[in-house]
Write a structure and sequence with these properties.
The complex is a heterodimer of chains A (about 325) and B (about 250). Chain A has about 325 residues and is mostly helical. Chain A has 15 helices and no strands. The two termini of chain A are about 25 Å apart. By secondary structure, chain B is an alpha/beta fold. Chain B contains 10 helices and 10 strands. The chains are: A mainly alpha (about 325), B alpha/beta (about 250).
Chain lengths: ~325, ~250
């Protein structure tokens, strides 16, 4: 225990040290491409190494976590109600697949767009607050949507959920590869946003909102846009989740779902983008393993990991291992 | 009066929980002039700045920018109408470099901040102008330095470069020389003297040599009210101002 924490401390110290800039940057660029290639290979291999259903689940949570990270890491807004977008998209995806028979990529897109539209009123009200108040407003809205979904059982199936969502690719192994392009698309979108003129404004707003306003940036509107983009990404994940399970439950809207996404991001590393997929792979795999071994208090373990991450290496796995500040 | 007015405040007041920080202030800033706001700490100078730039809403009163009522507009709207400000407490984006700061300010003025689907390399089109501005404030060598790593005086200079990047009609400077050494003060005086061409400058300043060197007109505030107004020489000779600054004890010295 003491040995590992000493190791972590050493890693943090090393990461903190500013690197030699000019010669290191070409090396780092190459390293980045290598990492990307390794990640793609890993993603292609995943359903061979895991149950394909678990692999699909990792994809969904990776998108959800990146959506959270976009807000938390790059705008400084901690949403504790993103299950609203994940779950709403899951229901919308399921419904259009059931009632209109839309093929799965279109159904997922419909779900994600529904989540984006939902983000307009919620975001409009939430972005006027920061910190804990922002988290509470998003949580409150998510709880309202949970209650509505529970009561409106003619549409959502209430506590029974949406049963038997149709899917042309029934085998999970092949479905994984069908879902992968959507996930890569979503991850690319997140990367593009972060490294865009818009992303630069977001970082400025995160670091100093007053200064950004004095320059003429309409801070609330930028935050709202980021919130909508984040909801779209969470919606992509939620829609895939619905198609992956061929079933949508109320749990997709529950606050514990929001909490799990936050845990994944914190574990993976806030403000890194890579942290989302990494944390998703770790947490989903771990939960699967725990439930397979018949361990019932899964929350105890993930909660414990969360606490340890916050206490020992606050920059998460990715931030601690790779990121220089 | 034939000179057009760039910035006008009429009966401007602001309360904080019963405390009146700015009390019925009337201010007329003629276009193209340098107008200094002076006064002891707590006189309401920075609050007045925050009112003029939309960071605070007035409890009562009215603000006009080139004849247009801007009372109650949010700061970003005021900025887009051509008012740039610097902050008394240096206020930058810690993780961005000097160059990125100025690029961001130039983008704010020219638009394009919404493009989340484009590469941030697009910001580099502002680079030539950003370099000019950085050179102008004496930061030419420090384009790649993160704001957090700059010395205090250089942060102040970057503040000024950010405000100038907006190419504002009205430039509001909150203590531009605060905490600077003599050499930097000289350079800042010279710089403000240069950038005031074609602009209106309103500045809060404690350093009387700066006020004397630059200000066409001086307004003295005390306890939220206008105590005196006039040229630097007039204000300096004003009986009420002398009393306020030196205390009533100065009469005994006469």
């Amino acid at each position: 225990m003491t040995e590992s924490s000493a190791l972590v401390a050493q890693e943090m110290a090393e990461a903190e040290r500013p690197g030699p800039e000019p010669r290191g940057s070409a090396l780092r660029r190459n390293a980045r491409w290598l990492l990307l290639a390794a990640a793609v290979v890993f993603a292609l291999w995943l359903p061979f190494g895991l149950y394909p259903a678990v692999a699909v689940e990792i994809l969904c949570w990776a998108l959800f976590a990146v959506a959270i990270d976009l807000l938390l890491g790059y705008v400084g807004l901690m949403s504790f109600g993103h299950a609203a977008f994940w779950g709403t998209s899951a229901y919308a995806t399921g419904l259009v697949a059931i009632h209109w028979g839309l093929p799965f990529p279109l159904a997922v897109l419909c779900g994600a767009l529904t989540a984006t539209v939902l983000a307009v009123p919620i975001g409009y009200l939430a972005v006027k607050r920061t910190g804990i108040y922002f988290a509470m407003v998003t949580l409150a809205f998510a709880q309202m949507i949970y209650v509505v979904a529970n009561k409106w059982s003619s549409l959502t199936g209430g506590e029974n959920g949406l049963q038997s969502v149709p899917r042309a690719i029934t085998d999970n192994f092949y479905f994984y590869y069908a879902a992968l392009p959507i996930v890569f698309g979503g991850l690319f979108l997140a990367w593009r946003i972060v490294h865009s003129p818009f992303g630069r404004v977001l970082v400025a707003i995160r670091d100093n909102p007053s200064r950004a306003r004095a320059l003429g940036y309409a801070v609330h509107r930028y935050k709202l846009m980021a919130f909508m983009l984040s909801a779209f990404l969470a919606g992509l994940g939620g829609g895939l989740f619905a198609m992956g399970h061929r079933f949508v439950s109320l749990e997709t809207l529950h606050w514990t779902t929001s909490g799990k996404a936050v845990i994944i991001v914190v574990l993976g590393g806030i403000g890194t983008l890579w942290g989302g997929p990494l944390g998703a792979a770790a947490i989903v795999r771990l939960e699967d393993w725990l439930s397979f071994s018949g361990f019932e208090q899964i929350g105890l373990v993930t909660g414990g990991i969360f606490v340890l991450t916050v206490l020992l290496f606050r920059r998460g796995v990715w931030g601690t291992l790779f990121k220089r500040r | 009066m034939t000179t057009p007015l760039a910035l006008v405040a009429r009966g401007l007041s602001r309360d904080f929980r019963g405390f009146r920080a700015v009390d019925a202030v009337d201010l007329e800033v003629a276009a193209g002039t340098v107008h200094a706001l002076v006064g002891p700490n707590g006189a309401g100078k920075t609050t007045l700045f925050n009112l003029l730039t939309g960071f605070l809403a007035p409890t009562s009163g009215r603000i006009e920018l080139a004849g247009r009522d801007v009372t109650g507009l949010p700061p970003e709207a005021v900025a887009r109408l051509g008012v740039a400000r610097s902050f008394q407490i240096t206020s930058l984006f810690g993780q961005l470099t000097s160059g990125e700061h100025v690029e961001l300010a130039l983008q704010a003025a020219q638009g394009g901040g919404w493009r989340f689907w484009r590469s941030d390399k697009l910001l580099h089109r502002h680079r030539p102008r950003a370099r000019e501005l950085l050179a102008m404030v004496g930061l030419g060598e420090l384009e790649q330095s993160k704001a957090d790593s700059l010395s205090y005086g250089r942060k102040r200079a970057l503040e000024l470069a950010l405000a100038l990047a907006l190419d504002p009609q009205v430039l509001l400077l909150d203590e531009p020389t605060a905490g600077m050494g003599m050499e930097d003060v000289e350079r800042t005086i010279e710089l403000i003297g240069r950038v005031r061409e074609g602009r209106t400058v309103v500045m809060v300043e404690h350093n009387m040599s700066v006020v004397g060197a630059l200000a066409d007109r001086v307004t003295v505030l005390q306890a939220g009210r206008v105590l005196a107004e006039g040229s630097y020489e007039q204000v300096r000779a004003d009986e009420a101002v002398i009393t306020a600054y030196l205390g009533s004890g100065s009469h005994a010295a006469h």
